[in-house]
Amino acid sequence: MIKVLLCDNQLLTSEGLIAVLRNAEGIEIIGEGKGIKDIKQSVINLKPQIIIIDPFYSHFSVDDIKSIYEQLTITKILILTNRQQKEDFIELINIGVKHYVCKECSYNDIIMAIYATAKDEQFYCKTTMQTLFGDQSLSKENNDSALLSVRETEIIHLISAGMTNKEIAEKLFLSIHTVKTHRKNIIKKIGFTFKNAADLVLYTSNLND
Q1: What domains sit in the chain, N to C, each tagged with a CATH number?
Q2: Tens digit of each residue's pLDDT (9 = 90 or more) over 1-44
Q3: CB 56 within 8 A of CB 8
């Protein structure tokens, strides 16, 4: 059973989630947290596997999310929000958020997000991916991942893990020049550049779909 702590101060949202998840197989809402101190105490007392939280429309902040990650490492965080600003999402990704769905997503999306979060697998809903990348070539129909070689896909994963060109070269027994060439080819094939590791994490999650 996946034990969930719900942290959303919007009454309709929290009541709606409780109703939606009441009959979901393998999921149990064990409590609600109304503030950062309340959340931390609830984690100690109730030991939830997942915290579902909206850091933009509750009495929380991105710094609170960071604090939870740093202090409550055994609990996973699933962001459930209507906020679809790319800069906000990137800020959360950069502090470790790997699970993000918007409130307009389907029932199945929310359930799948909870299952993925429990396994610590990356999960970003389609609406979020669309907000971040628009109509850029990220769908399987456009065969972007098929254009990438096995080595290029491997390098994307290593970059998204935060590794430098030198570290990648050492791990794959390549020259730094070869790694740089692969990176240039990747950018040319997928049609856009990555400004930071967070963008690469998102692209990597799409390759793994």
Answers
A1: 2-126 (3.40.50.2300), 140-207 (1.10.10.10)
A2: 999 999 887 777 888 888 888 888 899 999 988 777 888 888 88
A3: no
